[in-house]
Amino acid sequence: MSKLAALDQLLEQYQQLSYHSDPVLEKRLHEAQDWLKQRIQKTHQEMFSKPEYQLMAKYFINRLYGGPEFDELSLQIERLLKYAHKAEKIIPENAIKTGLKSVGLAVLAMRLDEQVAAQLLKNYPTDQPIDDEMMLQTLIRLDQKDARLEQLNLLDDLGTALDKYMRSFIMHTAFKMCKGTAAKYKFELMYDFIGEGFVAMKPMKSAAKFIQEFTAKERTIVENVHAGKTNPFEI
C-alpha cells in the first residue's frame, strides 16, 4: 500500500466540507478562523515573541489552523496522489509521515471551525462582527470539548514527530535535494508545507517543548469555556 494512502482519506474528508458549495458559510468560516488566530496570538504573545519560536508560531497560525491557502494545497494533494509512486521516490519517508500529521491537523481544524461557522450563522446575523461573547456562546452550544482536546493531543504527537524525524542532517539534506523535482512536477506548495516545518524547527532546541507549552494553555481555555468560567479566553 502507498505510504500516501492516508492522504486520500484526508482529501476526501476535506472535499466533503460544506463550505465549498456555500459562499455564506465560507465567509463566516474565514471570519471565525481570523478570530481564532487573533485569540491564539494574544494568548501566546509572550511565547510567540521569543526569537527562537517566531517561525514555529507563524507555521502554527498559517499552516496548522487552516485558511484559504489550504484550498490550493488540497488541489496539489489531489494531483500528488495520481503520482504517488513518483512522490514517494522524491520525498523522504519520515518527511511524508510528518507531513501527513500536519495535513491531518489542518483538515481537522477546518472541520471543527466549519462547525463553529455554521453555529454562528444559526444564532447571529451573517454580517455581525464576531466578538468574544458570540464565540463563547457558540462553543458552549456546540460542545466541541472532546474534539478540541483530541486536536491538542494530535498537536503533541506532531511535536514528538518533528523532534524524532525532522532534526536529522541527512533527512534535511535529502529533503532540500527534492526541491527541484518537486518544482518540476508542480508540487511546490506541498513541498513548502512540509519544508516550513524544517525551517521553523531550526532555531529551537525542541519542537515538542514549544508545542507542549502551547497545548497546555489551550487545554486550560477549553476547560474554562466548558466550566462556565468568567473571561475563559483570558489566561
TrEMBL record:
It holds the Pfam family DUF8198. Residues 18-232 form the DUF8198 domain. InterPro entries: DUF8198, FFLEE_fam. This is DUF8198 domain-containing protein. It comes from Acinetobacter chinensis.
